[in-house]
Amino acid sequence: MGVGLKTYGDALDFLYARTTGVWRLGLDRVEGFLRVLGDPHRRVPTIHVAGTNGKGSVCATLEAVLRAKGLRVAKYTSPHLVDFRERFLIDGVPVSPERIVTFIDRYTPEVERLGATFFEATTAMAFEFFAEAQVDVAVIETGLGGRLDATNVVAPLVAGVTTIGIDHVEYLGGTREEIAVEKAGIFKPDTPAVIGEPEAEIRALLTRLAHERGATPVRTVYDEGGPSAVTVGPSGTSFDLPAFGRRLRTPLLGVHQAENAAVALTMLAALPEHFRPSQGEVEAGLDLVRLPGRFQRVGRYIFDVAHNPDGAGVLARTLAAVRPPGPVVAVVSVLADKDWRGILRELQPVVDHVILTNAPTAPSSRAWDITEPLAYARLLGISAELIRDFDRALVRGSEEGVTVVITGSFHTVGDAMARLEVSPTAG
Length: 427
Description:
Layout: H1 8-16, H2 28-36, E1 46-50, H3 55-68, E2 73-76, E3 88-90, E4 93-94, H4 97-114, H5 118-132, E5 137-141, E6 158-161, H6 169-172, H7 176-183, E7 193-195, H8 200-212, E8 218-220, E9 228-233, E10 236-240, E11 248-250, H9 255-269, H10 279-287, E12 296-298, E13 301-305, H11 309-322, E14 328-333, H12 340-347, E15 353-356, H13 371-379, E16 384-386, H14 390-400, E17 403-408, H15 410-419
Parallel strand pairs: 1-5, 1-6, 2-5, 6-7, 7-8, 13-17, 14-15, 14-17, 15-16
Antiparallel strand pairs: 2-3, 3-4, 9-10, 10-11, 12-13
Helix pairs in contact: 1-4, 2-5, 3-9, 3-10, 7-8, 11-12
């Protein structure tokens, strides 16, 4: 029996109340909830993607190519930028608000009984929606880590790990080796595994872990040659890949996007024949790839979620390659538990001015104290100022910059998109 939720806003308020700011990793609660739902995750063929950076790009590429093949494709990603419904896409269309209200109203007692977290409830909801829609395949992105992530209930057609960086150290460990062990937890016996890590030592570790878990075949993108002859232009990234006889292009910008595309294409090649796209379908699908909030250009604005130093480094290299008109002003807000020093160091060579601010939707428990980042930015020689009010910071950015880069957390990019009336699917 439901609890009488009336509106989409009521439903989201209930779900967000399950967010404590602390991740509770483990599969018991989500498996218990899925049993109540009739185990919908077992009725949907899935593709599973983990990694510190690049997951979103790989998922977007998988989705686009499989849709170009004519399949009905679902995609589950997190977090969202503007609207919660971005997390659940079926053939590119968000699930309706009414369906979300109905689900949360009906299953609130079970969520409370099991003590399910926000992400666990949301993950179970995704599988229910996808099974109900009878999709041909669902692309599933991990939330945090892999081994104990709520999405790791699936028995996928193929599992892929993109890159390993330092992030979420309080949950995953403080070294790349420790984090690799957690990410490799998505590899399953007798299931293809794809590894996109470019650094040889970590790649070898992931390969060994995949074999230990019984994955087969195990394919490592860089041991197979990886992308080469990469060129980045204003409208996309072109590259060669040994398995393909002709040059490939993704509309996503940056050398790293050739790497991400190579991971996705290797995963697609490892699928069972019924799901495997032809070369023509690959090329058609690549043309259709869109990824909100990752070097997404809309007019003078560039929206890029760069919430760790690796992500900021990728942003910096892409700015250097594309060379947008200057002056380039960055509006930056980072959560306090992230390595904002590393982020600022990466941005220093490629921006003319930085405006430090607070994203309105950032949890108060994780909001950074901007005075210390301001002092650090100036120590690095960055022209920087502090504007606590987010709306004023955006105005100031547009006054000072010909190009305005909005970056940091998902909250930062999403809040800016909402205020500037930019759809996450625009551009």
